[in-house]
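pasting for ref
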Amino acid sequence: MHPFFLSAITLFILAVLGISYFLPEKQEITKIITIEAPPEKIYNQLLSAQFFLSQMNQKDSASLNKTDSTQAVVGATLRWKEDSFFYKEAQIKLTKAIPEKEIDFNIVLEGIKNIDGFSKILLNVKDKATQVTWFVSFSTPRPWNVANLFYNLEKERGKDFENGLITLKLFSEAKYEANLY
C-alpha cells in the first residue's frame, strides 16, 4: 500500500476518534402530554397488547409481531422490522410495570452495530388529569457516537413518539373502553 494512502487512512481514523471524544454518547427524547383520564385507564391502555404493538410498529407494514393475549406482561418481548440505514430489526422487552405509575422497556436495534436503548413511561396525577411522560434514551458509545452527526433521534423519530402519545390520549379520553382487538 502506498504510504500516502496509509497516512490518509490513519489521519481519517484519528479524526473520527477525535471527533467522537467531543460528541455525546447517547441520544434522548422526552415527550409529555396531559390526558383527561385516570392513571388506571391510561396504564391499562398502555399495556393493551394491541395498542402496544400498534405503537411499536407504526413504520412497519409487515410486522413480525403477533399476539393472542390482550395484555402485555413484564418479560414480554416484541420484534419488528425497520427500514433504516443503521438498523433493520428491533426488539422491545417490557422490564417493569408499576400499576398506574410507571412502565419500563429495554430496546435493541439490530443492524450495522446493535444499539441498546431504554424507554420509560411515567404517569403522574395532576388535578383530575394525568401527565404522561415518555422518555427514550439510546446508547451510542465511542467511536460509534460519530453516527450521531448523521442521525438525530429527535428529528427522525420524535414525531412518532408525539403521535403515540396523541393516540394514547384519544383512546384514554374516550367515554367508552376502546376495543382494539
